[in-house]
Specification:
Blueprint (H helix, E strand, L loop, with lengths): L2 H26 L2 H7 L6 H26 L1 H6 L1 H22 L5 H8 L2 H13 L5 H18 L5 H5 L4 H19 L8 H26 L7 H29 L1 H4 L5 H14 L5 H19 L5
Helix pairs in contact: 1-12, 1-14, 3-5, 3-11, 3-12, 5-10, 5-11, 6-10, 7-10, 8-14, 8-15
Length: 306
């Protein structure tokens, strides 16, 4: 291999984790907004159950041979596989979809901006991973930037926010997904697609008894184009594409460093609104994005230094 080719591949490997971790919040950007929009026509557990069931069905035709080869490792590591499937797949998304019944999309987005800090706190408590003061400042700056975008640059909006039962659900959901992200380092060394197949399957299976309960208590949803499109969207992009990118990115650079990319969710949501809904780019968009990117650069530049 020539030196120039080697350098090119090394450069690609260097930025690949960041591309993967940026793709995940791009896919998740519309998830909470969509969930809020269909809250009245799809019960939350049903939405989560069919999301993972359809995602599993989409993956299986392309992965069942590899999944079969990885079965022994999955069984051997059943505890961590079960933990990751329940926290990151079944419980997080069910709580999110339940939360939007009693809270706003703005509140949900604001609460999610705390996730990087929760990831760092859990890593510090459980694994004694050290974080420098300048990195903490970078995390805070990222969070402030994300909040600035969500509240449209008007800090007075924060004082008018009211908190409901759904906000507590979102807080619990954030802690669960932070645990999922931190413990990804303990997952077995199986193919990334196999990991998705098994976690999606275990997550859907864990939701099954609650789905049956919801059918009896609330009833089923009416099948329509809107419902089918919503389930297909969340099964493909926020599930398969986003989880593959997020899991691989976290594996490459770690939960502390990668967790900051969660703050890109409101940024991408704003960009999608401009492209798809014809909304205008405002000064608060630019200011918030600059705060987020500056904070991420501060954290990553100083990552791993003593």
């Amino acid at each position: 291999m020539e030196l120039s080719e080697f350098k090119s591949k090394a450069a690609t490997a260097a930025w690949m984790p960041y591309l993967l971790l940026a793709t995940a919040p791009l896919c998740w950007g519309g998830n909470i907004v969509l969930a809020r929009g269909v809250a009245e026509i799809i019960p939350p557990i049903s939405f989560a159950f069919w999301r993972w069931t359809v995602a599993l069905m989409l993956l299986l035709p392309f992965s069942y041979h590899q999944a079969g080869r990885d079965l022994i490792l999955v069984v051997k590591n059943w505890k961590i596989m079960g933990f990751l499937s329940l926290t990151g797949i079944a419980m997080f998304n069910t709580l999110l979809y339940s939360a939007v019944h009693t809270t706003t999309a703005i509140n949900g987005a604001l609460i999610q901006t705390a996730m990087p800090a929760v990831i760092i706190l859990i890593s510090l408590i459980l694994f004694n991973e050290k974080v420098r003061a300048i990195q903490i400042f970078g995390v805070v700056l990222c969070m402030l930037g994300a909040v600035f975008v969500v509240i449209r640059g008007e800090w007075s909006t924060v004082s008018t926010l009211s908190f409901a039962e759904g906000d507590i659900m979102m807080i619990v959901a954030v802690v669960l997904y932070a645990l999922y992200s931190v413990f990804l380092k303990r997952k077995p060394q199986i193919h990334p697609v196999s990991f998705l197949v098994y976690t999606f399957g275990i997550g859907a299976l864990g939701l099954l008894p609650f789905y049956v309960w919801e059918l009896n208590a609330v009833g089923s949803f009416q099948v329509s184009k809107e419902v089918l499109f919503s389930i297909l969207y969340v099964s493909l992009f926020p599930s398969i594409v986003a989880y593959f990118c997020w899991n691989r990115g976290i594996e490459l650079i770690g939960a502390n460093q990668g967790g900051l990319f969660i703050n890109l969710i409101p940024v991408f949501a704003s960009i999608l609104a401009v492209i798809l809904l014809g909304e205008s780019v405002r000064l608060y968009h630019v200011a918030g994005m600059m705060m987020i990117f500056t904070g991420m650069m501060m954290f990553n530049r100083n990552f791993g230094r003593n």
